[in-house]
Write a structure and sequence with these properties.
Shape: elongated
Radius of gyration: 36 Å
Distance between the termini: 91 Å
Strand content: 5-15%
Largest sheet: 8 strands, mixed
Structural class: alpha+beta
Number of helices: 35
Number of strands: 24
Length: 901
């Protein structure tokens, strides 16, 4: 029975679209009448729908649990629990809200790759025109199968990968190739030894037909198409954690371990020296709270968010907060050429004629007048040219010389049009030149070697002219120009060529036109800043290697040397390792790159420990953008898929914006370290009071309460810490090499500064204020200070003095932490107004806790006398002054070391 027959052989192996057309038709089991409806339905069951496969979404619940179990989140959970145990439910719920907001934001980022693949599906048309049962009909594009005969017309999206069988079209392949100029696709024999995307008789799913009409045999649908293959690559690549995310986890575990160990040790010590168990437990809880920086995660999140907003104003939209920090550690940029390094505006640069050489004389004007006639561009009602970018540049160049064509008259005089054929790299028109008679003139333009091969004659002066023209074309190409040779052939009255082959022969050289897409003026300076900052810049492009190399040299890429890979698609893994490994210091142009090549380059760089920023604008770039640490998509010329897959979108498509973003990333990273110094410096004055309490065996009462610690960690320190995230970059931020990705966000020097200098000074000052208040009231070690005792009021005032002293030390620490190397005078006292407002809020909040009666009862505070206020008002100057002296000494030592070298 028919329904029980074996599937067609095409179900068992992939057809080769480059085979001869009769052989391909035989393999696909189709012909000029297309498939029958029943056969199409059967193949649909075998091959499945012509759709981009989308991977099933992972469990939201599982991802949410993973975010809520982040080490810093666990610390915040502990802080919330302690707040509930201390009876401050409002504070506990506030901490939980911070945890949920951070988890929700992180959860949204996990959907990024899935959204990119879903966007790919939008490139497929809803319906397609096919021939089935010998009749043209419209069907759902998802029902196309291998062997279907599709009809492509101007404005159609190509519904599946197909081999053209008749006719020709202009196809916008930019989403796959990255090249903005439409490509000619014509029916004919396949060209061997060229990449599949450059095969002149193949069209690909998701691309657009911008002109012409053709028929083609579908040879691949769904996941087997180029579009489906890119979707599979995007789904197989996964985003890895940024350096900051990994380091914050390590810091969180370090803090948690230190807090638990210190709490356990001091608990044992407290019991050993005779403290009641209840007091020892109170002390342990307070020590844990003091060691947990409750504000660290939200402050990092807010600081990164501020960096995101600042970058957006500069033309870089960052979609993942942690990417701001990753930008700061980037050490390799892989960039496209067209539109990123260049303006993507082709223009006429140079003219050359055999008679006059270069110049704009009569010969040159005649060359441009005839070249402009060999175009198909049109002009709209507003006077804007539409069509191929190269031909638009030719018409603009002719207009600039005063010989611009009347496009309507050009079309009226045209007798024949031979469209650009990528196999012979020529385009020709047969036109009637102005003037009397029935003469015809053939104008041919194309690749110099293709045109010169069809020049009449083979010896003497004619041969010398060909040699001179070839040399001139090579000279122009070395300068980064796209060179077109133009030739003519006159046909006398009543004589016309029989076909294209006869027409494009016995030509006479007219001259050469050099077209140029100039580099953006700001790119050279940006590349220079990259080199000063220790970054390496590679060009990964689908364009010609010579042209890309010329642009690279013009903008300064290639220090200390420039390597050019003309056909990057054929590179082996070993060759990639040699080009991109740590032993190589060269910058490289990877020309004619395929989607897999970009992905392999990103993987190779990652393998060698590089932090990679990769630019892209097409669908073909999505896997590499997703795999790179920083995927950079073009906002103006990029596709939706590229923008979804990328981490950062450039609203101006400008390479210089990437460099600005890297500088901003370095600044943000430095500022993260600044507020970590600021936050960590307060751990010592918060821990020391509990150590004094424990080591004295309770003879010295607790100088600080748990609620006052929470008031510091989640109240007074938050705004100044956030303001430190707005600090401007220190001098020389782009003159130092990129930091290693393994470098910890917390260094040994930072801990020494936070705990050994700022922390110790702050602890001594605040604890000193505590003892000053008690001794002034007549307290001696062991004197009772519990509620109801004579010294209880003095004790409450003393703990308030400790609390206020820590806050005042925070003010000094904030000014000290603004710079790691330079003096405060060098960066300016008033250059961070947000910090001044943060300190003002900090002081107002502290005043409210100390002097407002309802808050006094809640936080165990009391009003301070004028003499205590007079003492603690000097604390900021002492803390800042101590660190200022330390930094001055470091600058002096480094200066001496530099002079000795």
């Amino acid at each position: 029975m028919a329904h029980g027959r074996e599937p067609s052989p095409i179900a068992e192996k992939e057809p080769d679209p480059r085979e001869s057309l009769p052989r391909l038709r035989e393999e696909l089991g189709t012909g000029d009448r297309g498939l029958s409806g029943r056969e199409a339905a059967r193949r649909l069951a075998v091959y499945g729908a012509n759709e981009v496969p989308v991977k099933a979404e992972s469990s939201i619940g599982r991802e949410l649990v993973r975010q809520l179990a982040h080490p810093l989140a666990l610390l915040l959970w502990a802080a919330a629990l302690l707040a509930f145990l201390a009876g401050i439910a409002v504070l506990g719920w506030a901490i939980i809200a911070v945890i949920m907001v951070n988890a929700g934001f992180a959860l949204m980022q996990e959907r990024q790759a899935e959204r990119a693949v879903e966007t790919l599906a939008r490139y497929l048309p809803d319906r397609a025109e096919v021939v089935r049962d010998g009749q043209e009909q419209s069907v759902e594009a998802r029902t196309l199968v291998p062997g279907d005969l599709v009809i492509l017309d101007e404005g159609n999206k190509v519904p599946a990968d197909a081999r053209l069988t008749e006719g020709g079209i202009q196809a916008d392949l930019s989403m796959l190739t990255g090249e903005s100029a439409p490509a000619e696709r014509v029916a004919g024999p396949a060209v061997q030894d060229v990449p599949l995307l450059q095969e002149p008789d193949l069209v690909f799913s998701g691309t657009t037909c911008t002109g012409g009409r053709a028929r083609g045999i579908v040879y691949a649908t769904g996941s087997r198409t180029e579009l489906g293959r890119i979707a599979a690559l995007s789904q197989r690549t996964r985003r890895e954690q940024s350096p900051l995310e990994r380091q914050v986890k390590r810091v969180a575990w370090f803090i948690a371990a230190a807090a638990v160990v210190m709490g356990a040790v001091f608990l044992v010590v407290g019991v050993a020296v005779g403290l009641p168990l209840s007091d020892a437990l109170t002390f342990a809880i307070g020590l844990l709270v003091a060691n947990v920086p409750e504000g660290l995660l939200p402050i990092i999140t807010l600081a990164l968010a501020v960096g995101v907003r600042a970058l957006a104003r500069q033309g870089a939209v960052v979609k993942r907060l942690s990417a701001v920090e990753t930008l700061g550690s980037t050490n390799v940029i892989c960039t496209d050429k067209t539109g990123t390094l260049t303006r993507n505006r082709m223009r006429m640069q140079r003219l050359w004629t055999p008679q006059a050489g270069t110049g704009t004389g009569a010969e040159a004007r005649n060359l441009m007048r005839l070249t402009a006639d060999c175009t198909t561009v049109s002009r709209d009602a507003e006077g804007v040219l539409h069509g191929d970018g190269t031909e638009t540049a030719l018409v603009d160049g002719a207009t600039a010389l005063g010989v611009g064509p009347d496009l309507g008259e050009r079309d009226e005089r045209r007798r024949a049009l031979y469209r650009f054929d990528p196999r012979i790299r020529l385009m020709s028109v047969l036109t009637s030149p102005p003037g009397p008679g029935d003469r015809s003139l053939l104008i041919t333009k194309g690749a110099p070697e293709a045109v010169l091969a069809r020049v009449a004659g083979s010896g003497g002066a004619r041969s010398e002219e060909v040699v001179r023209t070839t040399r001139a074309a090579e000279d122009m190409a070395r300068e980064g120009m796209r060179v077109l040779a133009v030739a003519t052939r006159a046909f006398p009255s009543g004589s016309l060529p029989l076909g294209r082959e006869e027409a494009e022969s016995d030509l006479e050289i007219l001259g050469l036109v050099g077209l140029y897409d100039p580099p953006r003026p700001e790119v050279a300076a940006a590349v220079g800043r990259c080199h000063d900052a220790g970054l390496r810049v590679h060009i990964v492009t689908g364009d010609n290697g010579s042209t890309a190399a010329a642009v690279a040299r013009q903008v300064g890429i290639g220090r200390p040397e420039l390597r050019v890979v003309a056909a990057a698609e054929g590179l082996t893994e070993q060759q990639l390792d040699e080009l991109l490994g740590p032993e190589s210091s060269a910058e490289t142009v990877f020309a004619r790159s395929s989607p897999e090549t970009k992905l392999r380059i990103a993987d190779t760089l990652r393998h060698h420990g590089r932090i990679v920023a990769m630019t892209g604008d097409g669908v073909n770039d999505a896997p590499a953008l997703h795999r790179a640490h920083i995927g950079v998509a073009m906002g103006l010329s990029g596709t939706d898929v590229a923008r979804e897959a990328a981490t950062m979108v450039l609203t101006d498509d400008n390479f210089a914006t990437i460099v600005t973003a890297i500088e901003s990333g370095r600044r943000v990273y430095d500022n993260v370290r600044k507020f970590i110094v600021y936050i960590f410096a307060h751990l010592v004055p918060e821990v020391v009071p509990f150590a004094v309490f424990a080591l004295s065996g309770g003879a010295v009462p607790l100088p600080l309460t748990v609620l006052q610690i929470l008031a510091v960690d989640l109240g007074t320190e938050t705004l100044p810490a956030l303001a430190l995230g707005r600090e401007k970059a220190e001098p020389g931020v782009m003159s130092r090499p990129p930091r290693e990705s393994t470098q910890s966000v917390i260094s040994r020097d930072m801990l020494i500064r936070s705990w050994g200098y700022l922390g110790v000074v702050s602890a001594a000052l605040s604890t000193g204020a505590f003892f000053y208040v008690l001794w002034r009231a007549g307290w001696h070690p062991g004197s009772p200070t519990a509620s109801g005792s004579e010294l209880h009021g003095a004790y409450v005032t003393a703990t308030t003095a400790t609390f206020a002293g820590i806050v005042m030390c925070q003010v000094g620490t904030a000014f000290a932490a603004r710079t790691d190397h330079a003096s405060l005078r060098a960066i300016g006292l008033w250059t961070n107004p947000l910090l001044l407002w943060g300190i003002a809020f900090e002081l107002a909040f502290t005043g409210a806790l100390i002097y407002l009666t309802p808050l006094q009862g809640l936080f165990g505070t009391a009003a301070l006398s004028p003499d205590v206020l007079l003492i603690i008002v000097f604390f900021p100057f002492v803390v800042w002054g101590t660190d200022e002296l330390r930094r001055a000494r470091r600058r002096r030592v480094r200066g001496q070391q530099a002079s000795e070298r």
